[in-house]
Design brief:
0% strand; single chain; Endonuclease III, domain 1; 12 helices; 196 residues; elongated; 61% helix; Endonuclease Iii, domain 2; mainly alpha
Length: 196
């Protein structure tokens, strides 16, 4: 439920919403019987509340009908549930069920491409490349580390001067080759005057 709600929302917002949601709907059977209007009220602040409510109820109904109310530990079965794509399925596998999963979000796409361990913009293809490059036991952790690195250091405008993996990074090596590494460092230090 929380992973479906996290789409286009913040972890903080989802963490505010889920206690009341879990209390009211403690299992798939309870959620499957939810009134859409009641659920929409509870998830309103996460954004896209109508679509999320519909997906949550549909997901719960299918869990009850097909899986006896239990979340399956299989990516193909998970992605057949309403509101569950590969990223959500991999998050659930890795973090809720203890099955290695490698969720690929925008941070993983950016970081893996810059470092040079995967290439492309298609999350499914990048997931496949990363899964081939890494031992299965590391998949969940590898995704988590890249997501945090992408949020903190390897942002769209990266902080290469603070990066602990820059010596192994294709992107940083290309900056050195083109002579831009020093310029980027100087740009980061320059105080910018706000526009009025």
């Amino acid at each position: 439920m929380a992973t479906i709600l996290s789409a286009q929302s913040t972890d903080e917002r989802v963490n505010i919403v889920t206690p009341a949601l879990f209390e009211r709907y403690p299992d798939a059977k309870a959620l499957a019987a939810a009134a859409t209007a009641d659920l929409e009220t509870l998830v309103l602040s996460t954004g896209f509340f109508r679509q999320k409510s519909k997906a949550l109820i549909g997901m719960a109904q299918q869990l009850v009908a097909t899986h006896r109310g239990q979340v399956p530990a299989d990516i193909d079965a998970l992605t057949k549930l309403p509101g569950v794509g590969r990223k959500t399925a991999n998050v659930v596998l890795g973090h809720a069920l203890g099955v290695p999963g490698l969720p690929v979000d925008r941070h993983v796409l950016r970081v893996s491409s810059r470092i040079g361990i995967a290439s492309g913009r298609d999350p499914v293809k990048v997931e496949s490349q990363l899964c081939q490059a890494l031992p299965k036991a590391m998949w969940t952790l590898a995704s988590d580390v890249q997501i945090l690195h992408g949020r903190r250091i390897c942002r769209p405008k990266p902080a290469c001067e603070r990066c602990s993996v820059r010596k192994d990074c294709d992107y940083y090596r290309s900056l050195i080759t083109t002579g831009l590494a020093g310029k980027r460092k100087n740009d980061a230090r320059r105080v910018r005057t706000p526009r009025r």
